[in-house]
Design goal:
The chain is mainly beta. It contains five helices and 17 strands.
């Protein structure tokens, strides 16, 4: 059941395209539409629309002069027919971080599974950080995820997408299921980065292949788009020489990309934290990452 203001929001076409088609068997739906804005020397939360199972909280304490918005899925995870729609914006000159309260869990599904649609708009001279915690897929989970990032002139973006196939600490593995993951970055309307991953069917067998994952069940990609991104490549590689998993970093045209594979989620997280310490100039991660 939707409130009147929620129906107005949907009819206005403000939801990402992936979330506009709502199946009959929706169990839970969440919507976030938020923005940061610059006011003087400070960045403040300018817009905060919340509906369904998604909530947004901004701690009173601002670390390193940047507000940090924390997204919360009150439904506890995604199951059959669930849809999350997230619209995040950084207005001109603003800077801030958006993260999640905990790892997102995707449970067993029988048909379509769950969907997550994220749109990120970063205006000129803004500094955006999109640092969600890991997405954990249980056995027979099905997830379609689409992330669209639009950058203005001299805008910077640091983002991460991490996936764990099963809770390795509980001896759980994702043997079968589906993951369709698409990410696009555009600078002033021009496509500068595209990444698509699709696993369908016998997931465990696929990732065990040497050319796929060589047995790894945890993976991540970190992307940093900024004027000085390429200058951080060597310092980053020095830190990643001590990584617990398999990692690789490359840089081109003002963009730096890091890919990671690990045998478990704990190793992956340690490698992610080490990489982000370089890319965030030593600033501590949001406190929810240490809970």
């Amino acid at each position: 059941m939707y409130r009147g203001d929620e129906l107005d929001f949907i009819e206005a076409g403000k939801l990402p395209a992936l979330a506009q088609a709502i199946p009959d068997r929706v169990r839970s739906q969440g919507t976030i539409d938020m923005s940061f804005a610059r006011q003087g020397s400070a960045t403040l939360l300018a817009r905060s629309y919340q509906a369904g199972c998604l909530r947004l909280r901004v701690p009173r304490r601002i670390e390193s002069g940047r507000p940090c918005a924390v997204l919360i899925n009150t439904s506890g995870g995604l199951a059959e027919g669930d849809i999350l729609s997230q619209s995040l914006a950084w207005e001109t000159g603003s800077r801030g971080t958006v993260t999640t309260q905990a790892a997102e869990k995707v449970y067993r599904a029988q048909a379509e599974g769950g969907k997550i649609a994220t749109r990120i708009d970063v205006a000129e001279h803004a500094e955006a950080e999109w640092l969600p915690q890991e997405t954990i897929l249980f056995d027979h989970a099905r997830l379609r995820r689409d992330t669209q990032i639009n950058l203005g002139t001299n805008a910077s973006f640091l983002g991460i997408e991490a996936i764990v196939l099963g809770r390795t600490a509980m001896d759980e593995q994702m043997q079968d299921g589906m993951l369709s993951d698409s990410l696009r970055i555009r600078r002033e309307g021009k496509l500068i980065y595209a990444d698509t991953l699709r696993l369908d069917g016998a997931v465990e067998q696929a990732v065990n292949r040497p050319a796929m994952g060589n047995g790894a069940c945890a993976m991540a990609v970190i992307l940093y788009v900024a004027t000085g991104a390429t200058a951080l490549l060597n310092p980053l590689r020095q830190v990643l020489d001590h990584a617990g998993g398999l990692v690789a970093a490359s840089a081109w045209n003002g963009m730096l990309a890091v890919r990671m594979l690990a045998s478990n989620g704990a190793t992956l997280r340690r490698d992610i934290v080490a990489a982000l310490s370089v890319l965030r100039d030593g600033r501590p991660l949001p406190r929810v990452w240490s809970c």
